[in-house]
Amino acid sequence: MTLKTIFALPALATVTLLAACGGGSDTTRDSIRAVGSSTVYPFATRVAETFTRSNPGMKSPIIESTGTGGGIKLFCSGVGANTPDIANASRRMKKAEFETCAANGVTEIIELQIGMDGIAFASAQGGITMNLTPAMVYAAIAAKPYGKEQTAKLWSDVDPSLPSEPILVYGPPSTSGTRDSLKELILEVGCDSNPEMKALKDSDKDRHAQICTEVRSDGAYVDQGEQDNLIVQKIGNNPKAVGVFGYSYLEENQDKVQGLPMNGVEPTYENISTFAYPGARAMFVYAKKAHLNAIPGLPEYLAEWAKNWSKDGPLAKIGLIASPDDVRAANAKVATEFTTINGSDLK
Predict the structure, then answer these.
(1) The whole model's pTM is what?
(2) Longest alpha-carbon distance in the chain
(3) CATH of the domain spanning 3-116+282-337
(4) What's domain 118-280's architecture?
(5) Chain CA centroid to CA 347, Å
(6) In this structure, what are the phi and psi dihedrals at residue 182, rounded to the nearest 5 degrees?
C-alpha cells in the first residue's frame, strides 16, 4: 500500500492500520515533522516561524534536534505518518544512507542546499588564544596520531608555538554532522599532511579512517552531545577550554566567545563564504517527495526556505552564510519543482 493510499483512508482506519505498524500517537499527523542537525536546527525553527506566519491556519512544523546521522536514520526508516518528512543535515547525505533509504521504500528524495556554515574553533572572550592548523588539531585530539600512542597533554606538546596549557576540547558527538565535517575538513587533512598517512589512504582505507578520524577518549576531547549551546556555556565558564561548533553559534554568542584562526584565517562570514577558512561546509535539507501531498503544508515549507536564505534575509541575520548566487538559484528551483536526486554523485 502506498503512502498516498494510507493517507486517503478514513481517520479511524488510518489510526488502526498505522498503530498496528508501530505508528503510535503519530498516526494522524497534520503538521510537518523535521529531525536532524543541531546546527541546522535554529535555521529550521526560524523558517518554521515564517512559514506559520505566511500560512495562517496551518500548524507550526515540529523541529527536532537529533544530530545529522540520527536524523537521516529516522528519515530513511520508511514512508508514512510515523516517519519524519524532513532530515536536516550539516553535511551531505552519504551514499550508504541513500541506499538504506531506498531499501526501506524512501525512493524519491528532494535535496536542498540551504546555505553554508563553518566548523568554528572558539574559546571564551579573554580566554586561550591560538593560531591553529588542521595538523595541530589532529595531533591534539586524535586517539592515535599517525598511528602512534597519544602522549600530548599540553597544547605546547603538539607545537611549541602553542600555549603550555592542558588540551581540553568540547566538541560534537559521533552522530553529529559537525563531527563528520570535523573529520573530513580538519582531522583527515591534518592526518594526510603526513606522507605515510596519505599513502595509507590508497592501500588500506579502513585503517586510514581509523587512524585519521578517531578522537581520544581520555578526557582531552569531551563529547557534549547534540546541544551546541552547552559547548558555548562550557567554554564560557573555562578560559582554558576550546569548543567546536557551527559558525552560527559563534556569531550568536560573540559577547561570550571568540573564534580561533585556522591557518591564520579567522572564522568569519566572508572567509567561510569564499572557502578561505578551512572549515567551510554546505548544509542541506532532505524531504520525501512521497509526503508532499500527504502532509499539509510540506510543499509550502520547502518553498519557504528559498524565501529566507538570501544574503540579507532572515536566516543570514542569525548566522546562516548564503550559498553562491548560482547555487541559490538552482536550489530555489528545486524548492518549488521538487526534483529528486538519484544518488549517483554521493560518496
Answers:
(1) 0.78
(2) 70
(3) 3.40.190.10
(4) 3-Layer(aba) Sandwich (3.40)
(5) 16
(6) -60, -45
